[in-house]
Design a protein that fits this description.
Length: about 200
């Protein structure tokens, strides 16, 4: 299925994707992505601003992701073509393989759910890592698999919000959800329940 190297140009060569794998992306989407990356810790000091869940199907390899306007199923080539930055692939440890398979089924059923541009947990919308958090929690019989942590929108070492977040939430007409529970791609990448794959 991965005979064409072009389809995984930024994914380490030699990795055969499986259903339930997670692909971590460093998207250059401007000040918002930069702000996210500055306040989140990721595997090996990398910077991740997006994550998707792999679904290997008869017609090809797809990524379930919350991006744009909604949760959607994206062909692998379209997903990898978003950035020239290297991507990392995470896979749950062997004892969690069944949970990962169930999480994919849950995430697929959420196709069409609106994108959570407010980054608020449990509001019937999803941002990228929130989709994975709920999918794995559902698959784990309602128990946390990944961990929610207090979010911050402040500049590191400062009590000041990033100006880009101030403008962003003013436009939405809501308060900045400082310290509200949330999750990010970096946090998932450092989970003890997954392994980052190397060729």
């Amino acid at each position: 299925m991965l005979s064409s190297i072009n389809l995984q140009a930024q994914i380490p060569v030699g990795i055969k994707l499986q259903t339930g794998d997670m692909i971590f992306q460093d998207l250059d989407c401007g000040p918002l992505c930069d702000a996210i990356e500055q306040v989140t810790k990721s595997y090996d000091g990398k910077h991740f601003s997006h994550i998707g869940l792999v679904s290997v199907q008869h017609s090809g390899i797809f990524i379930i992701e919350a991006i744009g306007k909604e949760v959607q199923l994206t062909p692998l080539k379209k997903f990898t073509n978003r950035t020239t930055n290297p991507m990392l692939v995470g896979r749950v440890k062997k004892q969690y393989t069944r949970i990962a398979a169930k999480a994919v089924k849950y995430a697929l059923a959420e196709k069409g759910v609106p994108y959570d541009d407010a980054f608020l947990y449990n509001n019937k919308k999803y941002y990228c890592s929130e989709l994975l958090y709920d999918a794995f929690k559902k698959a784990n019989r309602g128990k946390d698999f990944f961990v929610l942590e207090p979010m911050t929108f402040k500049q590191p070492g400062s009590n000041q919000f990033f100006p880009v977040w101030v403008a962003y939430y003013e436009k939405l007409g809501i308060s900045i959800p400082e310290a509200e529970p949330g999750i990010n791609p970096g946090g998932i990448s450092t989970s003890s329940k997954i392994e980052i794959l190397t060729p």
